[in-house]
Amino acid sequence: MTSANVTVSRQSESETGGFSLEAIVFSLYLIRDAFGGVMRYYSAKLHMDVLWFTPDLAAILCVALFLKRCIVDNRSVMALLVFVQICVSLAIGFFFLGSTTALFSSIKMMFPLFVGFCFCDAKIGDYRRMLQIVTVTFYITLGGVFLSKYWAMPWVGFKYESFGAVREAGRLWWSFAEQRLTGFAADSTMAAYFILIAFVLTSIRRSVVWCLVLGGISAYAIRLTTNKTTMGVLIIYLVCLLVVRALPEENRLPTLRKLTLSSFAAILVPIVLIVLFTGVDLSPGHKGFFYSLQDRINNSWQLPFVYLSQLMPIGIITGCGIGCFNYPQQLFSNLHGYWVPVDNFYIGTYVMFGLPFVVYMWMVFRATAGITDVYKLSVIFVMNIFTITVLSYGPATGLLVIALGFSEVFSRRMTGALQGPRRVPAGEGTTLHGAAVGVARPVS
């Protein structure tokens, strides 16, 4: 299939409602993770635990799709290097953790990444059916949180086994005398996350009145889960959305792009806080937001590098491999005593991949400057702020959504900008130009 035909094929997928392979797998992950408490409980009761892994099995196809779409069709050297680096990091992780089970868990952890990358040349707004599923998930998740305030969900406290490790599908947490409501999710953090990300993806096509009303309800629902950081991110997004909507039509996209590029400054926040407040007692009462922040500054963000310098000094540069200082190490490695929760996506990913991750993020930043998809820009903006204090490798949809936003780095447009114009076979010039450089079609 020629490059022109590949582009036309993807446009045809959009015109039929956007239910392509990547959209199906995205929807499977979304439904499974957003309703994780329900899924775990009833699949175990019905002795159908294998159903939990259906999205992961389907995601294997997306690995092949990534190889074809990004490396073969788009001829992206960046995509090839990223794939090779992931393979190398899996090998380093196996050497560091010394566990075959941890290796398989690490491989499974990477599947959502490839699903998100498969959206590289896509306009998310064209996936109408997928977005409808996101909207339905949003409403049900909201309802589940409010319902759990008055009704004890049967899956709360339910324990299940995964890869030989015992977990709880819906542990009942209490935060300073406040009950953390989980709704239909596996825990309160997941419930809050899915309200946030589903609201973001749904709000883009909704009126200002809808955004204000449902934004307020969403903030209150997240407050019931006691995830104040997530609530703060939602409020920041809502304020920025109102500011952008108030601008003239021609200024909205450039302003959103500037806001998104500015959000990458969040990467520096942990570094600044570590320099300024390491060893400072931010919370004498040992509770509340500032105590949590103090723990991140003194432990969560620093200890992985302290332990890595002791266990594998070269890992400061090369990374200690996929799975290190993540749940594969916590659950399946003899190094679980060195595990600490790395509550920041960029720190956690750097620890695993090392300096190559810095190069990749620089290319992502450059690609973001040319993104025209409002959905991708909004997702990157929100996730950059959200992941300041969240690792976001669990649930799997967290990593998938980040990869979806970053996927533009593998697009045909970005590949052409980085690697120069491609040679077009005789007779294909007009077709390729018309297919690849067309103006985005508005979606009703």
TrEMBL record:
The chain crosses the membrane at residues 50-67, 79-97, 133-152, 181-201, 208-225, 231-247, 259-280, 300-325, 345-365, 377-406. Keywords: Membrane, Transmembrane, Transmembrane helix. The keyword Coiled coil does not apply. This is O-antigen ligase-like membrane protein.
